């Protein structure tokens, strides 16, 4: 009992970070009081490091199947001692932030069963290949791998340009056709008037016309 009373409170930066994560995702977990202290009241889904009278720090966070939506919480980057993170089987979206590749003590990162998109940070992939990190990314259908992101980006960039050029050409052709039709009408009108003025007339018709005038 005395040992529990003497236990230091959780590192304040970790407390601030986990509270922001709770607020961002609207978590309904029964997270009350200090996240890591006393040890017997450790928050559900958390694991903390304890070293003498030093402030405990969060080293593991499990939010699997917690109904999470939106993008990865930036405050996760403030849990600097975090070793294990499980965000599997949620509805998280967006690209993976670079800070996930820069966490210094990673051991496991489980992002299975979400809707993440875009490319995977190269450093994250490198750590996984080197055996420094257990990385789970399956069941994220919008991830692009092996250079497909670049191809997709180029395709998305080229299509609007082609469409714009095609629209401009169509408009230009329409203007040319209208101008040609107008020009042709003008030429026909001039030709008709010219033919009428140059047509030879019978002098008797002029005399008769003048006679009718009197």
Give me some keywords for this one.
single chain, about 210 residues, alpha/beta, Leucine-rich repeat, LRR (right-handed beta-alpha superhelix), 2 domains, four-stranded parallel beta sheet
Question: What would you say about this model in short?
Answer:
The protein is α/β, with parallel strands linked by helices. It has helices at 2-6, 12-25, 99-102, 122-129, 148-198, 203-213, and strands spanning 46-49, 57-62, 69-70, 84-86, 91-94, 108-110, 115-118, 134-136, 142-143.
Structure description:
The radius of gyration is 39 Å and the shape is rod-shaped. It has two domains: 144 residues, Ribonuclease Inhibitor (Leucine-rich repeat, LRR (right-handed beta-alpha superhelix)), CATH 3.80.10; 52 residues. The strands form two sheets. It has a five-stranded mixed sheet with strand order 1-2-4-6-8, covered by helices on one side. Strands 3-5-7-9 form a four-stranded parallel sheet, with no helix packed on it. Helices cover 43% and strands 14% of the residues. It contains six helices and nine strands, in the order ααβββββαββαββαα. The model has no long low-confidence stretch (mean pLDDT 84). It is of the alpha/beta class and 214 residues long. This is Leucine-rich repeat-containing N-terminal plant-type domain-containing protein.
